[in-house]
Design a protein that fits this description.
16% strand, alpha/beta, 528 residues, 18 helices, binds 1,6-di-O-phosphono-beta-D-fructofuranose
Length: 528
C-alpha cells in the first residue's frame, strides 16, 4: 500500500454519543444573547438557544436529500466533513442522498452539483484539499442571490444545505436560513466552522477546523528554520504566517517553536503601536543579541499585522472606502490627504501596489498578498544604520508560510473533528435546526468524549462596515489576552529573546502513540 491508501483506511474517531443514530436529539441547553442590532434583521433565527446532543427521544429514520458546499479558502479536513455527513445520512436511511455544489456558493446560484456517492467519496477520505467539489468566495447577499438559492434547493428537493466555511461564509448561511424561513422554504441551512485562521471561535466553538493541521505544518517549517539559524548563525529569518486579521496561527506557532520575537497584531492594536515602533523593537532585539554574539534569529509576523498599526489602519480604511466608491487604482494615491498621503508615499512601491489590490468579494483587504516581512526587513536595515548601535552585517531572509498549510493531509485531530462536524450537521438537518452551526465542546479531551453542540449563528453576529455599508457579519474572534495560550506566551516570550530555546515540533504524526498523533492544538490545552 502507498501512503494515500494507508491514510484512506484511517477510521476517524467520533464522540460516542453520535453512534446513537436512531435515537439522538439536540435539545435546548440555554438561550444565547444576540446583538440588539442583529435581532430585528433576523426575526426567525435570532434568539435561538444553544443545543446539545442527548440520547433518547423518538426513533427517527427518514430519507434525507442534502446539498453541501465549500466556501472560502481551503482548510485541511473539508473532505472529512463530507464523508462524516454522508456516512451519517446513509445510516439514517440508505436512500438518503448527498449533492455537492461545484465551485463554492456560485454552484448553488448556477445549480451545478455532483452526486456524492460511496464510490465518488472513496478516494477522498482523510485527504486534504477541497478538490472533490471545489470552493469559491461568492458572497450571497442580494435578493436575486437569495431567490436563486431558494430555486436550486427547491428543484433538488433539499431537506438541508450544509455550508462549510469561515466567518463570511457562515454569514451567508445565516442570511439564507433567515430568507428560507421567511419564504416558507423547507430547506434547513446549517454551517460548519472552517478556516485555518482560527478566528471563527466562541465560548461554544473552541476552534475552527484546519487550524490544527495548518499550524502543525507551519510549526514543522519554523522549527526547521530555527535549527538552520542556530547552525549557520548568520541570518535573521522574518517569517510571515497566514491567518488574516487575527494572530491565532502566529501565537500557536510561537508556543510550538519558541522564536526570538513574535509580533501579535492584537498587542499592537491594544498599545497603539506604530510601524516605526515595531521596527524599533526589532532593531533593539538585533542590537542586544549582537552583544551576546548572536547575529541570527527568528521573528514571526502575523499576515494581518499592518491592518492593526494605527497609521496603516487609517490608510487601509480610506483606501477601502475609495475602492468601494469605485475609484480607479491609479487615482487612489491622489485622493489621499494629509497624514495618509504621507504614510503611503513613504512605503516601497511594491507595498503601495499590494495595498491597492482589489478587495475580496466580502470587502476584505487581501493581506496574503502584502509582503509585510519584506517591508520590515527594509525598514529594520535602514533603522539599524540610523541608530548606529549594531556593528555586524544584517542579513535577513524573508519567508511566507501560507498556502502550504491549507491542503495537506489533515492531522488526526482535524480528521476526527471534521468527520464529527459532518455527522452533527446531518443530525441538525434531520431535526430541522436551521440557522445553526455544528460544533463540538471539550476538544482538549479524547474524541470519544467530545460534546456535540449546535450554536445559533446569529448569536455570533454584529453590524460592520463592508464596502462602505453597515451589514450583519459574524464577528472575527481575535486573540484574547485572558486566554491560557496568551498568558503562557507572555510568561515565556522575554526568555525566548535571548536564550534560543528553539523547539522543533517535527512533522505531523498521523500514526503512532496517541499523545503525539492525536494531540490537539496547544492553544486548546488546559496548560500549554
Ligand atoms: P477563509 O477565511 O475563507 O478560511 O480563508 C482563509 C485564508 O487562508 C486566509 O488566511 C488568507 O488571508 C486568505 O484565505 C487567502 O485567500 P486566497 O485563497 O483568496 O488567496
Amino acid at each position: 500500500m502507498n501512503f494515500a491508501e494507508y491514510r484512506r483506511a484511517f477510521q476517524p474517531k467520533c464522540p460516542q454519543i453520535l453512534e446513537q443514530v436512531e435515537s439522538l436529539q439536540f435539545v435546548q441547553e440555554k438561550e444565547l444573547s444576540c446583538d440588539p442590532n442583529i435581532e430585528p434583521l433576523f426575526p426567525h433565527t435570532a434568539r435561538q438557544s444553544l443545543l446539545v446532543a442527548k440520547k433518547g427521544g423518538e426513533k427517527l429514520s427518514r430519507v434525507l436529500q442534502i446539498g453541501v458546499v465549500f466556501s472560502g479558502g481551503q482548510a485541511p479536513g473539508g473532505h472529512n466533513v463530507i464523508t462524516g455527513l454522508f456516512d451519517t445520512v446513509k445510516k439514517m436511511h440508505p436512500q438518503s442522498k448527498l449533492h455537492g455544489f461545484l465551485g463554492g456558493p456560485d454552484g448553488i446560484l448556477q445549480s451545478r452539483s455532483l452526486d456524492l456517492t460511496k464510490e465518488v467519496l472513496a478516494s477522498y477520505r482523510n485527504e486534504g484539499g477541497f478538490d472533490l467539489i471545489g470552493s469559491g468566495r461568492t458572497k450571497l447577499e442580494s435578493e436575486e442571490h437569495m431567490k436563486r438559492s431558494l430555486k436550486t434547493c427547491q428543484s433538488l428537493g433539499l431537506d438541508g444545505l450544509v455550508i462549510i466555511g469561515g466567518d463570511d461564509s457562515n454569514t451567508n448561511a445565516a442570511l439564507l436560513a433567515e430568507y428560507f424561513l421567511a419564504n416558507h422554504q423547507a430547506t434547513t441551512v446549517v454551517g460548519v466552522p472552517k478556516t485555518i485562521d482560527g478566528d471563527l471561535q466562541s465560548e461554544n466553538i473552541p476552534i475552527s477546523f484546519g487550524f490544527d493541521t495548518a499550524t502543525k505544518v507551519y510549526g514543522e517549517l519554523i522549527g526547521n528554520i530555527t535549527k538552520d539559524a542556530l547552525s549557520a548563525k548568520k541570518y535573521y529569518h522574518f517569517i510571515r504566517l497566514m491567518g488574516r486579521s487575527a494572530s491565532h496561527v502566529t501565537l500557536e506557532c510561537a508556543l510550538k517553536t519558541h522564536p526570538n520575537l513574535t509580533l501579535l497584531s492584537e498587542e499592537c492594536l491594544a498599545d497603539n503601536t506604530s510601524l516605526l515602533r515595531v521596527v524599533d523593537e526589532i532593531a533593539t532585539l538585533i542590537e542586544r543579541r549582537e552583544t551576546l554574539d548572536r547575529l541570527y534569529g527568528v521573528i514571526l509576523i502575523p499576515e494581518g499585522l499592518l491592518e492593526f498599526l494605527p497609521e496603516m489602519k487609517r490608510l487601509i480604511e480610506t483606501i477601502n472606502e475609495l475602492i468601494s466608491e469605485g475609484t480607479k487604482e491609479e487615482k487612489i494615491p491622489q485622493k489621499l490627504s494629509g497624514e495618509e498621503s504621507k504614510v503611503f508615499s513613504q512605503l516601497p512601491p511594491s507595498i503601495q501596489k499590494q495595498l491597492l489590490l482589489d478587495r475580496d468579494p466580502h470587502g476584505n483587504v487581501q493581506v496574503s498578498q502584502i509582503e509585510t516581512e519584506k517591508l520590515l526587513i527594509a525598514m529594520v536595515k535602514k533603522r539599524l544604520e540610523e541608530r548606529k548601535k549594531f556593528h555586524g552585517t544584517f542579513r535577513a531572509v524573508p519567508h511566507f508560510f501560507g498556502y502550504e498549510g491549507r491542503s495537506g493531509y489533515p492531522s488526526n485531530f482535524d480528521a476526527n473533528y471534521c468527520y464529527s462536524l459532518g455527522s452533527i450537521a446531518a443530525f441538525l438537518v434531520r431535526e430541522k435546526k436551521s440557522g445553526y452551526m455544528a460544533a463540538c465542546g471539550a476538544l482538549h479531551e479524547s474524541p470519544g468524549t467530545w460534546e456535540p453542540k449546535a450554536v445559533p449563528i446569529t448569536s455570533l453576529m454584529q453590524l460592520e462596515k463592508r464596502k462602505g455599508k453597515k451589514v450583519p457579519v459574524i464577528k472575527k474572534s481575535l486573540v484574547s489576552f485572558s486566554s491560557e495560550a496568551y498568558r503562557t506566551f507572555v510568561a515565556r516570550k522575554d526568555a525566548w529573546k535571548w536564550d534560543d530555546d528553539y523547539q522543533m515540533p517535527g512533522p505531523i504524526q498521523l500514526f503512532g502513540p496517541e499523545e503525539l498523533a492525536d494531540a490537539p492544538p496547544l492553544s486548546l490545552r488546559k496548560s500549554s
